[in-house]
């Protein structure tokens, strides 16, 4: 249980990182959201056996981390959480895809291995860019940006509430689980049956809380629409430069395999 | 809205499952009064509060706030006039930051951005929470949450403040701060609580609810001196009125209750576990 406690404390820290004052933190959230979106599209659109051409994309998360003054170890730990899921996706590739793509000495490298590694790199790149986006922008600001980019308001409110109450709900869940654990003495309690009622109670409590929140909203004149205090954000030169620069770079890196070109430059063989 | 009175006449409430929560409740609270509503668990305090800003509607009887009778048409104005602070601030603070939360009410009132800024800052100043304005609510301490929850209501400039268990879950210092804060308000205040010492300090008048009925309505001091009444209503004297058990040897101890389970009851199920 402690592990879950710990990881959620960590989640709050991600939120605190967004309060830092660096040039990238000051950019209009829309610019950062759109740039990250382009980044992700470019990365996932690569061919499934591609590895080398994706490596230069590391420059985007690396640069943002440096300018945004983000703790490398912390971001790394967040990315590591995602890796098992990516591995699961790529796990069976080496078994099913045994087409030999490369030979190192007498060792045959199957296509499955290559695509598995490719999936892993994609996961690292996309996860790191998303985590960094939250760390330099803050979740509410991202939602606000998406709203300005014409995401339906209902979604925005849903996401904001999800984000606000995820801490409260996990807290409740952790407390319930702890109470259960303290009375099962290391056994499995009543197993799945028990677990069902535990989750059921959590759902009921969530329901009651939702009702109380609704009451609190009505008490303050809520009439179906959440107005937000628009923060002064301005899409200016810095934003255009940031977006233009990065997106041009992404497109170039997507069209030309830079490591291969560089390699070719040194060995004198063009692809 | 010159007289900010709260007038409840013959209020009955029966829940859909036929639990009768309020029976013939009537009282009149004048402008500027500070009234405590006390009673045992399930006496009907929360049900009563939820009527005051129209969240629950009466089975019969009427409620008049200021000059308006509570009805669908007057609901928006009454909700602005009656600022309701709920027991769990976690339920009241639902926006991403403290500032957004305090601005929620004024935004719904359709005020201009400049006016909202002024209102929010005044409300935060009032509760001493200006430096918290950009913080998300889950980074606040319990006392801070409570004060900000009060600010979210103050920003609508209510004339009547209704507080449900304002001191629950606070440490002694935060509780002190909160009592001092509430004492400084000039609003009409209606407070429910089990913290009878706070009621004693804050409210000159007290209404005692028992089983959905008003058992007493009068001066707080008189009610807390009526041992018989308190006993019937499952209450007891505030600690401040009980005398110190160490310094005053002639203090009469409160009667101890018989144990819930008789001692030495060797019922077989006691040894099952």
Kindly list the characteristics that best describe this protein:
A: two-stranded antiparallel sheet; 12 helices; flat; B: 273 residues; Rossmann fold; 6-stranded mixed sheet; 4-stranded antiparallel sheet
Description:
The complex is a heterodimer of chains A (271) and B (273). With 271 residues, chain A is mostly helical. Chain A has one domain (2-225, 236-258). Helix content of chain A is 71%, strand content 3%. Chain A contains 12 helices and 2 strands. In chain A, strands 1-2 form a two-stranded antiparallel sheet. In chain A, strand 1 (100-104) and strand 2 (107-110) form a beta hairpin. Chain B is of the alpha/beta class. Chain B has one domain: P-loop containing nucleotide triphosphate hydrolases (Rossmann fold), CATH 3.40.50. Helix content of chain B is 32%, strand content 22%. Chain B is built from 10 helices and 10 strands. Chain B has helices spanning 45-52, 75-81, 89-92, 98-108, 113-126, 142-154, 172-184, 196-202, 220-224, 227-232, and strands spanning 6-14, 20-29, 34-39, 60-65, 68-69, 82-85, 160-164, 188-192, 205-210, 213-219. In chain B, the strands form 2 sheets. Chain B has a 6-stranded mixed beta sheet, sandwiched between helices. Chain B has a 4-stranded antiparallel beta sheet with strand order 2-1-4-5, with helices on one face. The longest helix of chain B is centred in the middle third of the chain and has 14 residues, at 113-126. Chains A and B meet through helix 1, helix 9 and helix 10 of A and helix 2, strand 6, helix 3 and helix 4 of B.
């Amino acid at each position: 249980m402690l592990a879950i406690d710990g990881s959620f404390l960590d989640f709050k820290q991600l939120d605190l990182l967004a309060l830092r004052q660096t040039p990238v933190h000051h950019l209009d959230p829309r610019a950062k959201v759109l740039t990250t979106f382009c980044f992700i599209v470019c990365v996932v659109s690569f061919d499934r056996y591609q590895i080398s051409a994706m490596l230069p994309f590391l420059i985007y998360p690396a640069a943002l981390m440096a300018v945004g003054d983000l703790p490398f170890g912390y971001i790394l730990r967040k990315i590591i959480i995602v890796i098992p899921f990516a591995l699961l996706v790529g796990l069976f590739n080496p078994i099913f895809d045994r087409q030999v793509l490369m030979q190192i000495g007498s060792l045959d490298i199957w296509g499955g291995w290559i695509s598995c590694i490719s999936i892993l790199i994609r996961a690292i790149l996309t996860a790191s860019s998303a985590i960094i986006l939250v760390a330099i922008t803050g979740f509410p600001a991202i939602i606000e940006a998406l709203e300005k980019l014409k995401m339906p308001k209902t979604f925005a409110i849903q996401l904001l509430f999800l984000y606000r109450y995820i801490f409260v709900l996990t807290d409740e869940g952790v407390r319930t689980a702890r109470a259960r654990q303290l009375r099962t003495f290391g056994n499995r309690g009543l197993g799945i049956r028990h677990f069902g009622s535990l989750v059921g109670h959590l759902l009921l409590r969530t329901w009651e809380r939702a009702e109380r929140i609704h009451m609190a909203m009505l008490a303050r004149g809520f009439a179906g629409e959440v107005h937000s205090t628009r923060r002064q954000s301005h899409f200016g030169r810095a934003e255009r430069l940031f977006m233009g620069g990065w997106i041009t770079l992404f497109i170039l890196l997507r069209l030309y395999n830079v490591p291969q070109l560089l390699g070719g430059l040194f060995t004198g063989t063009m692809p | 809205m010159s007289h900010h009175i709260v007038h409840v006449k013959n209020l009955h409430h029966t829940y859909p499952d036929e639990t009768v929560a309020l029976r013939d409740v009537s009282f009149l609270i004048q402008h500027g009064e500070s009234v405590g509503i006390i009673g045992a668990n399930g006496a009907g305090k929360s049900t009563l509060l939820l009527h005051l800003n129209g969240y629950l509607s009466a089975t019969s009887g009427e409620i008049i706030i200021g000059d308006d009778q509570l009805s669908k048409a007057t609901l928006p104005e009454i909700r602005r006039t009656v600022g309701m602070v709920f027991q769990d601030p976690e339920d009241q603070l639902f926006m991403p930051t403290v500032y957004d939360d305090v601005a929620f009410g004024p935004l719904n009132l359709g005020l201009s951005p400049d006016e909202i800024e002024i209102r929010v800052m005044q409300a935060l100043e009032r509760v001493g929470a200006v430096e918290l304005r950009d913080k998300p609510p889950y980074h606040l301490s319990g006392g801070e949450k409570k004060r900000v929850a009060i600010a979210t209501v103050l920003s609508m400039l209510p004339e009547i403040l209704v507080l449900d268990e304002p001191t629950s879950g606070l440490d002694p210092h935060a509780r002190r701060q909160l009592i001092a804060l509430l004492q400084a308000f000039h609003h009409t205040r209606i407070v429910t609580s089990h913290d009878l010492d706070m009621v004693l300090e804050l409210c000159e008048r007290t209404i005692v609810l028992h089983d959905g009925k008003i058992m007493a309505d009068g001066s707080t001091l008189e009610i807390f001196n009526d041992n018989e009444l308190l006993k019937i209503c499952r209450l007891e004297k505030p600690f401040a009125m009980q005398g110190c058990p160490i310094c005053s040897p002639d203090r009469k101890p409160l009667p101890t209750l018989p144990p819930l389970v008789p001692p030495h009851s060797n019922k077989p199920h006691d040894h099952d576990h």
